[in-house]
Amino acid sequence: MRWSKRVFDFYLDASIHVALAVFSLVACTSVNLNIPWNSHLAFFLFFGSISCYNFIKYGVEAEKYIKVANSYHKGIQIFSILCLIGAVYHAAYLEVMIGWGVVGLLLLTGLYALPVLPGAKNLRSLGALKIFLVAAVWSGATVLLPVVSAKTPWSWDVGLETVQRFVLVLALLVPFEIRDLSYDSPALQTLPQRFGVTWMKSFGLILVALFLLLPFFKDTVAIHNLGINALIAAFFGFLVWRTKEKQDTYYASFWVESIPIMWWLLLYFSGSRI
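^ thats the sequence. predicted structure below, dont judge the formating
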């Protein structure tokens, strides 16, 4: 079954899994806020996430990204280019306001990946700050863009959905921060480097609890959605609690990043539709 492992590894390494998580969160927004589903926006974010994440992972320097050393990464590069074409195709169907929102998110992503500050390669090199920047980009992409696309006015529920999404993504990043503790330079001063693994796990569990509690304060919420949130929070809390520095290869990159996908599937099969 070696071929199946290679396919699965490509699925993860080419950022298809993380892009599916983004797609799932867009779907969750449509369900939770009861707003129209924009398939072009969802697929734009799906294909765009693959291209963007692979660019960040495999070389923000143009020369490094173009001159690929091995056939495996060459395959990821070609796949990323095809996904970029798919993203451009779906972008052509988006409204101008969505375009401006995407530009803003791309600027934030650029701050994450490209040199912007003296003495720092990029904001990604500012360890304690990077996870908040990533959470802000994901929240904007998966909540605010669908809301703008649906021409839904700003409301208390939209605000809470945005905050809940920010909290969820922060919690998703906790196992990754702990996993990378052995590889990150001490100069980064990431949160687990500053406060330790136990503190970081406690921080993650608090975030999971907030994810569970925030929807109770919405003006409109489906009761069965709260039950699904509880299931997701229980499983997610278990993953955060079990997180350790030396973890299984797929612990964070597959199981943790599966949380948004599981959330959407539970909402879908419970009868909630996009």
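The chain is about 75% helix and 0% strand.
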